[in-house]
Amino acid sequence: MRILESIFNSGMVIALDLVAASARFRRTTRRRGNVDPETEDHSPSRPSSPTSSGPQTIPIN
Where is this region: Disordered (predicted)? Predict the structure, then answer.
């Protein structure tokens, strides 16, 4: 029974670690979300060239 209890306790610790990690990840993504609007202003010009070159290379192939 002690073995089962130790396994269960370790599982709970791992679960709590995952919850804490997910909370940290959500916080970082929110911060990145705040930065994204600034990059979005510059991003349309940047992806436009790769996306335009991508379709051009596809018909050529």
Answer: 25-61
Long-range contacts of 56-59 (CB under 8 A, 24+ apart): none
**What is the C-alpha separation between 7 and 10, in angstroms, rounded?**
5
Distance CA 6, CA 13 (A): 10
Q: List C-alpha distances in Å: 17 to 12, 26, 29, 60.
A: 9, 14, 18, 50
Return the structure tokens found at 10: 């370790």
Tokens of 22: 């997910």
pTM for the predicted model, two decimal places: 0.35
Listed as ranges, residues in the chain with pLDDT below 50 are 38-39, 42-55
Amino acid letter for position 41: D
